[in-house]
Amino acid sequence: MTRFAEPAAGAAPTTAVPTERRAKTRHYVMTPPRHFAVDYAINPWMDTANPVDTTVAMAQWHQLRDIYLQMGHTVDLVEPAPGLPDMVYAANGGLIIDGTAVVARFKYAQRKQESALYADWLRSRGYQPVHTRHVNEGQGDLLPVGGTILAGSGFRTDPRAHGQIAEIFGRPVVSLELVDPRFYHLDTALAVLDDETIAYYPPAFTYASRAHLETLFPQAILVDSADAYVFGLNSVSDGLHVVHPAAAVGFAEQLSDAGFEPIGVDLSELLKGGGSVKCCTLEVYS
């Protein structure tokens, strides 16, 4: 059953305080943007009149992968397929926790074939992929933090899928509703930094969802519009290092003040499709 936190009376957000951060070796899955293009528009960032340079996109993607490898993380690859330009956004492919894997059920027809390919990859790695009855867009809207799963809705993932996710993984799920179409997935408006710390952009959420977040994460980092609009929150953290879009300079300063080590990367070409660092990174949680 989906769990909703009750807002505390007079709860107010505070800024994360410096503490000792520890990196943990991570396991990531990525898909090269070999066929990346903006051939349709299913989010406000996509403009079919704005040409995409696939060579630049590949170079930026390789830089991101190389950063992960240099940090000692494992990176597995899923082979992209022609005609599926959004496969580079691997985070949307599903959710994998402790050997259990849910494969995405996409909202838009343009992406539905991706589910079968990610399911095939999961089977090739020994998983038995589980399908939800309702739309879920993987780690785009399903973000584990500690023993809880934060689950987004409003634009992509059906809130009815949240209860299914809770049952499949045996974890409490906190439902959060997004209201700004520019932040159509949870991972565009909220970043998990460690098992207790998140960063988010408050205006992307309903009042009730903001109240839940204020109660659950009173020391969260609250990001300004300038950093949110460059997809600064579409970031990946290993508990110490936070890989984020380089243009989010204010967020980088906030991370440093909170004891994290920010690493900026330029994924501007991939932002043309409405994705950045986290969108390109499916984490295998164990």
From TrEMBL:
Region called Disordered, residue ranges: 1-22
Transmembrane intervals: none
PANTHER family reported for this sequence: ARGININE DEIMINASE (PTHR47271:SF2)
Top-level lineage group: Bacteria
Skewed-composition ranges (Low complexity): 1-18
Any single biological process term in GO: L-arginine deiminase pathway
Protein name: Amidinotransferase
NCBIfam families, sorted: DiMArgaseDdahMtb
Single annotated GO MF: arginine deiminase activity
